Amino acid sequence: MKISELSRRSGVSVATIKYYLREEVLPAGEPTSSNQASYDEGHIRRLRLIRALIDIGGLSLARVRDALAATENDELPLHDAFGAVMLGLDDPGTIAAADDTFGEVRDWLAERRWTIAPDAPATRRLAELIDILREFGLPVTADSFTAAADSAEATAIDEVHYAHDQPDRIASVEMMLIGTVVYERAMAMVRRLALEAASARIENSARIEDSGRR
Amino acid sequence: MKISELSRRSGVSVATIKYYLREEVLPAGEPTSSNQASYDEGHIRRLRLIRALIDIGGLSLARVRDALAATENDELPLHDAFGAVMLGLDDPGTIAAADDTFGEVRDWLAERRWTIAPDAPATRRLAELIDILREFGLPVTADSFTAAADSAEATAIDEVHYAHDQPDRIASVEMMLIGTVVYERAMAMVRRLALEAASARIENSARIEDSGRR
């Protein structure tokens, strides 16, 4: 299809599509003449992914490019591609975790026998978040996340298999990204709803107690 | 303390502090002369909170102001303050969920007997995220989040009680915000680590199988 149809079907403006082509987050189309190219369903899927990563994941275009770089190297084993995606999703330069807390998280991961790349930004980011929670007086340790880790672990193998089982390697990497960024937002919303429901329950039982007293 | 000391102790520049004062996300200090004011520990805590909401939660300053507005109305019961915080955290105008999916999420919440405000953005946002996952071919329904909801529910009552038990109402609202925004990022990091560990485990067992075949 032409760029105008790609724009219409994806809901992304032609100007933005051209910008993504220049920034190399969207692969070039098949040239049909000196100034035209043809695009396919893969481009629509990729545009949808880019929008999800930016709008839902709050990623910058530079992060999107880094996370998607793993789709380009056909030689890379899928596990390494997955590691590259995870590396691309966060910017280690923006993380300020205390060394002690970082060590505490590393030890906790080792105890769980989770094999994590030493430079995985999620380890350092989790340590930073623990530091922040402590600054606010919350009695949090790495071990506070053991129940959450157990429950994430219970579904993670199936999720990774699902990504591996996609028809091609680009689809596998894209599925890993969607499974990471969109799912984690969904989990966050479930948590917000659970907190609101708990707050309503507490308020309600306080009211019943109160009217019982009269 | 003077604004210079507030800046030094919080790590936030004087210019940014003045901006937050003008934007009314940071309460004014106690005036000490016509052009000076005195700040206290509450201001340091508030600055830390604002930075966490912006840097970790990815909130705009307008979202931060909306979420913090609930600290100002002393008459508001804590549950309503909590609802206001949740309303402030997301912008419903940016959510595009299909009506069917929104209804599906509403029904699922009703089945769980979770009392959620009809205008809670998290309901609509969760529906939108389900739509996106489906666009990528993932077989997701509201019910797919039942295990996550069970596990969030198990700790939510304690978390809300913890916020209620803070020494004053401002601290309660601040704790709700931190408990929501910082914790959900931490949970997301735990999920990323679980996925990476699962990917390593799958790659490893493939390698063992492979060498067994030789």
TrEMBL record, chains A, B:
Key word Translocase present: no
InterPro entries, A to Z: DNA-bd_dom_put_sf, MerR-type_HTH_dom, MerR_fam
Domain of life of the organism encoding this protein: Bacteria
Keywords (A to Z) from UniProt: DNA-binding
DNA-binding keyword on record: yes
Pfam annotation, one family: MerR_1
Ranges in a coiled coil: none
Domain HTH merR-type residue range list: 1-70
UniProt xrefs under PANTHER family: HTH-TYPE TRANSCRIPTIONAL REGULATOR ADHR, REDOX-CYCLING DRUG-SENSING TRANSCRIPTIONAL ACTIVATOR SOXR
Designated name of the protein: MerR HTH family regulatory protein
Protein source organism: Williamsia maris
